[in-house]
Amino acid sequence: MSLDFNGRMVGPGEACYVIAEAGANHNRDFDTAIALIDAAADANADAVKFQTYSGASLYSTKAPKFEYLGDELGAEAPHELLERISLPRDWQEGLRDHALSRGIHFMSSPFDRQAVDELDALDVPAFKIASFELVDLGFIEYVGSKGRPVILSTGMASLGEIEDAIAACRKGGSDQIAILQCASLYPSPPHIMNLASIKTLSGAFGIPVGLSDHTTGLHISSASIAAGATFIEKHFTLDRSMEGPDHPFAIEPDELATLVSQIRDVEAAMGDGVKRGPSPEEAKEMYSKARRSLVAATDIPSGTTITAQHLAVKRPGFGIAPKFSEAVIGRTAKNDIEADEILCWDML
User: Fold this and answer.
1) Once rounded to an integer, what is the mean pLDDT over residues 88-105?
2) Three-class SS of residue 272?
3) What is the DSSP string of 129-186?
4) How high is the pLDDT of residue 342?
């Protein structure tokens, strides 16, 4: 089934929906957030997404620090770090309006019920739930109660946990659900991405499946199209050298534009799976000029009975096909045939 994102249909058979994940890479500067929206729009992404949370409601003050953030960022307690880089909620309407003016969807991942209410009031096209929230079934049920499409990221989740989350969303009232294969490591090494599971998830749940990609570079996201991804979410930043936890593994605006272009190229290259003869473009010249056919290996005087020694196989391909060589042997030349001349049936 396809989902309706405020008039944009998303799912199998539709163009891949590309979410440019700005996350917290606005660095709590409104102009930077606006510039991120502009960069996503310029890259022809379908949506730009932020995150709406507060540090105090997200992390216990007793939570241990994260080693992967290093000595500087990792020195802060998680609730303090997240509060410091959180999106000011009074920005959201202005960001939404700017995104709409640029022809791109505005989204933000909610991490509390107040955020769900705020984003619902802004008429977001869908709710995207982060992998870490997948086990909060009461929260997911509340998100489902808004009746909007819901995208569930599934990093670290078992099939059973995904099934529970889908059931909670449906219990809330939304049956427009998609899931994202994801590896919850920042950055993620390619060997844990498991792109083959995209088809597994699609078969198991019968709903659109995509990829939330935290690897460095573009190639894993592009490859996921061939694996069946109908959504792609990718973190991006204005500059990887900026301070913050999500900048180092994010792609920059020129790379985002390249990624969207690569995705559209891979979609076009996938075709419909039917193996055919030459395309119109191939048939225009290459089919006749670059294939092989039978040619005269030597001069062949008129009346000569053709033998194998008279035949060679060369390009171009508009003469007698090589597979008919046995049918040519034993026939008689109607006229003189010069060496290297392309053999046609009317010569024999």
Assistant:
1) 97
2) coil
3) E-GGGTT-HHHHHHHHTT-S-EEEE-TT--HHHHHHHHHHHHHHT---EEEEEE--SS
4) 97
In a domain, 126, yes or no: yes
Phi, psi of 6 (to 5 degrees): 50, 50
Domain stops at, among 270, 288, 317: 270
**Can you give the residue range of the structural domain that contains 327?**
280-347
Q: Does 74 have pLDDT greater than 80? A: no
Burial class, 73, CB count within 10 angstroms (exposed 0-12 / middle 13-18 / buried 19+): middle
Alpha-carbon gap, residue 16 to 211, rounded angstroms: 11
Task: Report the phi/psi class of residue 286: left, alpha or beta, with left for phi > 0 and alpha for psi in -120 to 50.
Answer: alpha
**In a shared domain, residues 254 and 310:** no
What order do you get walking across the sheet with 209-213 strand by strand?
105-110, 47-52, 17-23, 231-235, 209-213, 177-182, 150-153, 127-129
Residue reference for tokens 């490859």: 223
Q: For 110-132, what is the mean pLDDT?
A: 97
Residues 304, 260 within the same domain? no
Domain count, the chain: 2
Same domain, residue pair 206 and 164: yes
Q: What pLDDT sits at residue 245?
A: 85
Give the tens place of pLDDT for each residue, 284-294.
999 999 999 99
Residue 129 sits in a domain whose CATH number is: 3.20.20.70
Write out pLDDT tens, residues 152-206. 999 999 999 999 999 999 999 999 999 999 999 999 999 999 999 999 999 999 9
